[in-house]
């Protein structure tokens, strides 16, 4: 029987065993932020962090995870998120980032859901404007060009990019893969996270 405290994410049809729960990882990231040691892309007001602090939300997400299906995004939105995540944080697909974000969105407020869809939609609009097609249909080179464009502070989709990026980065660095990248080892869970630059999570 699945240990609900670990919120196992299904990757390639298999459960990834964890020795530290994803919720605990997220809470440690928040603790690092409070201590001034966390990455600069973390903003406490972003909705992803509420999930790590709110036990009720987390339990609802765990219940949704057991069904192993999309809980909020449609197939097209999910495909765009998968490729956006992999472009922003290489390795995001292996870490199950898009699946995890979908789980959290599925139990989030309608306001936060609308903000996410609006932000992803702005990036999709930029993709259509720049290449005449959506994110899911872009080549790797085109995706890199798209996210180079939307990550510019003077760009129209910059705020949308930052919002989506934090969903992606928070999901990635709370996974075992992301935790290891930050320095966590199975036999040594550090009290604080080492610093992480903006370049580690996209532009």
Question: What characteristics describe this protein?
Answer:
single chain, 203 residues, mainly alpha, 2 strands, globular
- Share of helix among residues? 40-55%
Order of helices and strands: EEHHHHHHHHH
Q: In which order are the strands of the major sheet placed?
A: 1-2
Low-pLDDT runs: 1-18, 187-200
Strand content: under 5%
User: Biggest sheet, in brief?
Assistant: 2 strands, antiparallel
Radius of gyration, whole Å: 16 Å
In short:
By secondary structure, the protein is an all-alpha fold. It is 54% helix and 2% strand. The chain has helices spanning 22-34, 48-53, 55-65, 75-88, 97-106, 110-131, 140-150, 158-173, 176-182, and strands at 10-11, 14-15.
Q: What are the SSEs and their pairings?
A:
Elements: E1 10-11, E2 14-15, H1 22-34, H2 48-53, H3 55-65, H4 75-88, H5 97-106, H6 110-131, H7 140-150, H8 158-173, H9 176-182
Antiparallel strand pairs: 1-2
Helix pairs in contact: 4-5, 4-7, 5-8, 6-7, 6-8
Explain what the structure shows.
The protein is mainly alpha-helical. The chain has one domain. The protein has helices spanning 22-34, 48-53, 55-65, 75-88, 97-106, 110-131, 140-150, 158-173, 176-182, and strands at 10-11, 14-15. It has a two-stranded antiparallel sheet. Helix 4 (75-88) crosses helix 7 and helix 5 (97-106) packs across helix 8 (158-173). The longest helix is centred in the middle third of the chain and has 22 residues, at 110-131. It is globular. The N and C termini lie far apart (41 Å). The model is unreliable at 1-18 and 187-200 (pLDDT under 50).
